[in-house]
Design a protein that fits this description.
Chains A, B: It comes from Pleuronectes platessa (European plaice). 2 copies of one chain form a homodimer. Chain A has 251 residues and is mainly beta. The first copy, chain A, is 9% helix and 31% strand. The two termini of chain A are 34 Å apart. Chain A binds a DNA duplex (24 and 24 nucleotides) through strand 2 and helix 2.
Chain lengths: 251, 251
DNA sequence: TACTTTTCACCTAGGTGCGAAGAT
DNA sequence: ATCTTCGCACCTAGGTGAAAAGTA
């Protein structure tokens, strides 16, 4: 499993595919922020070895970048509202510009601005995380500070969404997948191209498979303390339809 | 003064120019909704008489359409946040489709949806209104109900923004202005066109002149009960820069 | 050599008025 | 005759990877 790659640029590049999440088990009447940050998987720098098609460790990680939190633009919203929609992070952009003047910020809910750009190092491995933050525990929430942890804040990681940052794609199979599935890259599609083994490639990259993931919480409306298997870091995945809540996280 | 025209379509058409407003004098720490609705100027139907370039009464108004309120997508926000930005209503669209299935709604702040489409009758005169609604008086706020009035709600009308709804432009001077100033109509610009008298036409239409209007309120931070001339229906207008608050409205 | 930046053609997505056709 | 609808060419705005050029 060599993982996928994400382009980072000075101006900021979207992730593709974007993280999409379906949420269950929130208190419908509580208010929540939903946020995303991206944390290093290890403290290593990588290089891609073309002849073996593998990422190899190439030294220690560069010095950490200022932490950025992407607060979902629909924040602040009720649990009811969040659960009725698929929460998409397609506006988030990745940059390698450490000196970003924060001019790329947008208004996002009462008293909060939205950081459109998350700063990362190239040639490093990263893990996106989704945070669900109850309003009454959000006092320290800021685009420029780490997400607070503890009561009222629940964090989810999807290991299959780990990626390596690049300024130009290294693995040609990744390039092919991006061109084939991103509508904005349609201009590079070769209709007569060899598609043999595409399905096999797809299956190697769980990241691409079910675009919507499910975050499960204790469902305040439909269930009573059914202890499920979700730990908060290995949530269930659903392709379509209403997920079956199997809550363990209390929020 | 024959007023400007706005196209309405089944799918919905933006107003051009869009209403833009600068707000002063709010309590920085209070939460407010800002909304727009569009009310009939009279109960008449109109027709355009080409040879005299005038709108003439052509009968009584059609039966009223279901009221729609456009809640500004940045709602709910603090007075502080509202006052730091120019509030633009450029996402609002006008339609003549009375059977609009409300599928054109967007999430807008906790517990509220945003009506993108406002339903109007063609060949009628309308007045856009801006409402500033304090959160604790917003219990009845809904995209499908009239804006509540009374304490905690302040309504502003700008008489120079009255317009006539059409499905195709009647006055050719209006057409020329739209093509000349709307970037999306650039394809219809005739660079060699006669521009004589364009400035004169401009001055006839106050609507086009200063794109940003100012809503003044009692400024809780900088002043103490200075009774000004603003009545809430004849607010001052400013082209650029920070307006001087001359508040009379208490909110 | 190994990586980054810049420019570019080619897309998606959607906002214009025009003009022919449709409706009443 | 008067008004509305629809398809269209032509825009704005911005998201793609390719390829060339830049950097160290």
């Amino acid at each position: 499993d060599i993982g996928t790659e994400m382009i980072i640029t000075k101006a900021g590049r979207r992730m593709f595919p974007a993280m999409r999440v379906k949420i269950a088990g929130l208190d419908p009447h509580q208010q929540y922020y939903i946020a995303m940050d991206i944390v290093p998987v290890d403290n290593k720098r990588y290089r891609y070895v073309y002849h073996s098609s593998k990422w190899m460790v190439a030294g220690n990680a560069d010095s950490p970048v200022p932490p950025r939190v992407y607060i979902h633009p629909d924040s602040l919203a009720s649990g009811d509202t969040w659960m009725r929609q698929v929460v998409s992070f397609d506006k988030l952009k990745l940059t390698n510009n450490e000196l970003d003047d924060q001019g790329h910020q947008c208004y996002c809910g009462p008293g909060h601005v939205l950081s459109l750009l998350i700063i990362l190092h190239s040639m490093h491995k990263y893990q996106p995380r989704v945070h669900v933050i109850r309003k009454d525990f959000s006092s320290e929430l800021s685009p420029n500070k780490p997400v607070p942890s503890g009561e009222g804040v629940k964090t989810f990681s999807f290991p299959e969404t780990v990626f390596t940052t690049v300024t130009a794609y290294q693995n040609q199979q990744i390039t092919r997948l991006k061109i084939d599935r991103n509508p904005f890259a349609k201009g590079f599609r070769d209709s007569g191209r060899n598609r043999t083994g595409l399905e096999a490639i797809m299956e190697t990259y769980a990241f691409w498979r079910p675009p919507v993931r499910t975050l499960t919480f204790e469902d305040f409306t439909n269930m009573q303390k059914q202890q499920g298997g979700s730990t908060g870091t290995s949530p269930t995945t659903s392709s379509t339809g209403t997920p079956s809540p199997s809550g363990a996280a209390h929020l």
